[in-house]
Amino acid sequence: MLSIDAATLQEKLSSNEDILLVDVREPWEHDDFNIGGKLIPMNSIFENISQIPRDKPVVFYCQKGIRSALVIQRLQQKFAFNNLLNLTGGMQAWKQQL
After folding, report:
1. Cβ count near 15 (within 10 Å)
2. In Å, how far from its chain's centre is CA 53?
3. Residue 39: closest CA among 31, 70, 47
4. Element (H, E) at 21
5. Which residues on neighbouring strands pair with residue 86, listed in sequence order?
6. pLDDT at residue number 33
7. Is 91 annotated in the active site?
8. Which domains, and CATH codes, for the chain?
C-alpha cells in the first residue's frame, strides 16, 4: 500500500498538485476538524465508488490512518485501484505538523 506523510502532503497541496482528499471518518469527526477532503464515511465507501477517480492520486485519511488503510485495502482488492495513498498517522499526524 502506498502512503504519504503529513509534511509531504502539505507540500503537494501548497503547490496545487491535482490530488483528491477523501475523509473516511464519521461526519461529526469531519465537522470537528478536516483538511478539505471529500467526506465519504468508511461504511459508505462502496456506495460512492463513482466519486473515486482512477486518473489522479487519491489520498485517504481518518483519525490515525487505520480506517483509511482498511478502505484502501478493500478498494484495491475489489476494484484494482492503483492510485490510492494512505495519510500516515491520519489527522493526528497532520495536527502535529502544524
Report:
1. 7
2. 13
3. 31
4. strand 20-23
5. 3, 60
6. 93
7. no
8. 2-97 (3.40.250.10)
Is the Cα dihedral 14, 7, 41, 76 positive or negative?
positive
Residue tagged 492520486 (cell numbers)? 57
Residue 69: how many other CB atoms lie within 10 Å: 19
H or E stretch covering 50? none
List 62, 87, 91, 93, catalytic entry: 62
pLDDT tens digits, residue range 38-75?
A: 999 999 999 999 999 999 999 999 999 999 999 999 99
Q: What is the pTM of this model?
A: 0.96
Which set of grid coordinates corresponds to residue 28? 461529526
91 and 62 Cβ atoms separated by less than 8 Å: yes
The one-letter code for the residue type at 65 is: G
Q: Residue 25 is placed in which grid cell?
A: 471518518
